[in-house]
Amino acid sequence: MAQIHHQIVVVGGGAAGITVAASLSRHSDVPLDIAVIDPADHHYYQPAFSLVGAGVCTLSETLRDEESLIPKDVSWIKARVRSFEPETKTVVLTSGNSVTYDYLVICPGLVCKWDAIAGLKDALGREGVCSNYAPDTVEYTWACLKALKPGAKALFTQPAMPIKCPGAPQKAAYLAADYLKRTGIRPHCEVRFFTQTPAIFGVPFYAKELVKVAAGHGIEVHTHHNLVEVDRRARRATFEIVGGDQQGARVSFAYDMLHVTPPQATPDCLKGSPVANAAGFVEVDAGSLQHVKYPEIFALGDAAATANSKTAAAVRRQAPVVVRNLLHLLRGEAVEASYDGYAACPLTTAYGKVLMAEFIYGGKPTPTLPLDPSKERYVNWAITKHGLPRLYWDYMLKGYESFPAHDTSYADPAA
Catalytic: 345? Predict the structure, then answer.
C-alpha cells in the first residue's frame, strides 16, 4: 500500500478543516505543505438548514462544491480515514493507504445515528417523518409543514448531548408554530417539543427566556423524554422517560408531522482510537486545543472533547487558536491557551425573530451587540439570514477570520 507525507494534515473538510487550512495557507510567513483529508463532493452551510426546513431559503443556497473551497496550494486527499496511529504519526485510510505527518489537526465533525432509534431509518422522508439534520432530509421538513391541516399533531425531538447546534431542534418547533399561526390554523393544531435533557437549553440564562418563548407559542415542552421508536404505519412516536418519578417508563404520541433530531457521535475512526477518550472525542486541552498526550496533534469543532456548544461560531473562535499554536510550534515557541469556550446559537424563535445566545465556558453570556441578550430581535434575524452566511463563505472559509494574530478579545456573532 502507498504512503505519502505532508507537513500538516487536516482530517475533515467541513467548517473547521477548511478554515484551518485556509488560515494556515494565508497567514504563514513561509510556504507550508498542507493536506486536507475528506471524501465529500459537497460542502453545506448547515446553520441555514433550519431556514430551509421553514421555507425561508433553498437547499441550493447552502451548497458549494468542496473542491472550490480548498485553497489552491493545499492538497486534497479525497478519502475516508480508517484509524489514527499517533505513535508513528500516521493516518490510515480505508483504502489501506496511509498518510504521515509532522502535525495533525483532527476535525471530522459528528455523524447522525439514524439507526439508533427503532424504525426511524425506514420512516424518514415519508409519511410525515422529517429532519433538518441532513441535506437529503431537510427539504421534506418544509413539505411536511405545508401539509399540516387543522387538527394536526406536530412533534419535535431532541436527543442527548452532544449534538450539532443544540438550539436547532427547538428552532424547528418555533418556526412550525409560527407558520401555523400565520396560516390561521395554530389554535386547531397541537405542537409538542420533547427533549432528553432536563432543561430546554443548557445555559440557564437563555433557558429561562426560551421557556417563555415556547409558552408564547403554546408549545408543550416535555423534558427527560428520549425518542426510542417510530412506528410509521401507526404514525406513533415512543419515548422513554429518563428522569423524574416515571424514569424508565415509555409513552407514545400520535403525530401527523414528526421532526427528529437523531443521536450523534464521532466517526468510527475515532472509536477506540489512542487519540480519543472513551466516548470517541479527541482529548485536547480546553484552552490551547492541543492534544493532552501528543503535542503535534490538535483538534477543534464538533469532535473535540471540549465543553463548548457544538456550533460553527465555536469553530470561528477555535480556528485562530489552532492556527496560531501551529505557527508557534513551527517557530519553536510555546502554545497559548486562549480559547474561552465561546459559542453562539442564533435561536430562531419566529419568522423575523432571533434570540442570539452567545456564551463561553461555564455558560456565561457574552453578547456581541450592546443589547439585552435575552430578547428576540429582528436585527438578529437579519444577521442570521443574511450576514452570517456571507461571513461563513467569504471570510471564515477563506481564512480571513483567524487574525489579527494576537487579538483574542474581540467577540464575534457567528453560528
Answer: yes
> Helices 204-216 and 168-182, interaxial angle, to 10°?
20
Q: How far apart are CA 9 and CA 392, in angstroms?
A: 22
Average pLDDT over residues 360-365: 96
Q: Where do the domains of the chain lie? A: 3-110+266-339, 112-263
CATH of segment(s) 112-263 = 3.50.50.60
CB 346 within 8 A of CB 49: no
The pLDDT assigned to 375 comes to: 96
pLDDT tens by residue, 30-47: 999 999 999 999 999 999
Q: Can you read off the three cell numbers belonging to residue 26?
A: 494565508
pLDDT tens-digit map of 189-233: 999 999 999 999 999 999 999 999 999 999 999 999 999 999 999
Confidence band of 404 (pLDDT split at 50, 70, 90): very low
pLDDT given for residue 244 in this prediction = 85
Q: How far is CA 404 from the centre of its chain?
A: 26
Only one residue has cell 477555535, namely: 318
Q: Please pick, among 107, 112, 269, 345, the residue that the annotation labels catalytic.
A: 345
Give me the residue label for grid cell 490551547.
288
Q: Using an 8 Å Cβ cutoff, are 177 and 186 in contact?
A: yes
Among 130, 165, 189, 269, the one annotated catalytic:
165
Q: Which fold has domain 3-110+266-339?
A: FAD/NAD(P)-binding domain (3.50.50)
Q: Are 257 and 130 in contact (CB under 8 A)?
A: yes
